[in-house]
Amino acid sequence: MTGYDRVRPCSTPAPVSPIFHTQALPPTPCMAKSPVPELAVLGGTPAFAQSLHVGRPNLGDRERLFARFNEMLDRRWLSNNGPFVQEFERRISESLGVKHAICVCNATIGLEIAIRAADLSGEVIVPAYTFVATAHALQWQEITPVFADMDPATHNLDPTLIERHITPRTTAILGTHVWGRPCAVAALQEIATRRGLKLMFDAAHAFGCSLGGRSVGGFGLAEVFSFHATKFLNSFEGGAITTNDDALAQRIRLMTNFGFAGFDKVIHIGTNGKMNEACAAMGLTCLEGINEVVAVNRRNHAAYKTSLAGVPGISLIAYDEAEQNNYQYIVIEVDESVVGLHRDELVRVLHAENVLARKYFWPGVHRMEPYCSLFPHAHLLLPETERVAGQVIVLPTGTAVSEVDVARICGLIRSALDQAPAVRARLVAAASS
After folding, report:
1. Backbone angles phi, psi at 202, to 5 degrees
2. What is the pLDDT of residues 206-244, one digit of tens each?
3. Could you tell me the domains of the chain?
């Protein structure tokens, strides 16, 4: 029997290491509301001449980066656990207060290696509201991802619903810290411990975030971060696996480099998951500028909060100001019954203005292949995932987005909602033409 065949109802925290000190940037003088020109979908000119993306890369000091590149080229050590990779791992470990940080070529490979090193098998409970790589990392290794519903207040796994999915084949719970807001770690750990399961986390969004004053990175058996170009901390492409388990860390290191333990001695199954020196150089450079990125992200979140305050039917996710946050995601939920437009219609309005808002994580992993074919009835257990996935919009932020941009985007949203009937009529006409 699998988790789809039936429907049934921490360790001691270590002191958090300050990764960055959040600081508010001074407001610019251009936050005053200005008249919004006619919407592009109604015949106007797009508000932005160039596309405004959700995730443009945050860049560090170019001179420092190029200096590192020159060092790398001068010593002709481009891969295979070079000095920059070693330094990056050390800095990550120190920042997060964990014993081990193993850098990898990307977070998906990191998840696959961590899953295999932890000897997961059978079924693993995961959220359906996550990036598809969370499930793929399991299915790729012939482990069945069993999708559980979210807590609508956090968008993370709802611990109260986990046990209905546990079967004799269940070996682990794999949570995702969605938007960098940590899962209910204590509740998940209690279930895992009591039911004899392993607990791991996809922490792709959560570098620089904390829970109870403790940095994400040391929860569960292992956590996996993404340093993809669009993430808060980027290394062009890359990731890291963090753990406080010495034996697991040793297996992960072996598996990341073909199982080599020395020049000619292979003692374990492995693959090529190594991070190269160029990526580590970028990661180190971005790590040095992390305070500035947090300040910009925090400023933009505050600007969105101010500009969208009081708009009926639009809710902006909040971050816990008592914790460390990277503020990397600007996420709103759109209630069609209140605003008069469906989320998808509002996205079309924004796209026409060259604001390339995204529908994360639509339509939910359970409705993607191969999962929608393997588990065609999974949606019956996922009412909140279904609802939220149909309402969420992720808006542009980061160091490529200014407060002026934020004010303009919010003005477009307000204008679209003020003219909802006309906007809907024009979109329907355009779709039928």
Report:
1. -85, 110
2. 999 999 999 999 999 999 999 999 999 999 999 999 999
3. 62-288 (3.40.640.10), 290-357+396-432 (3.90.1150.10)
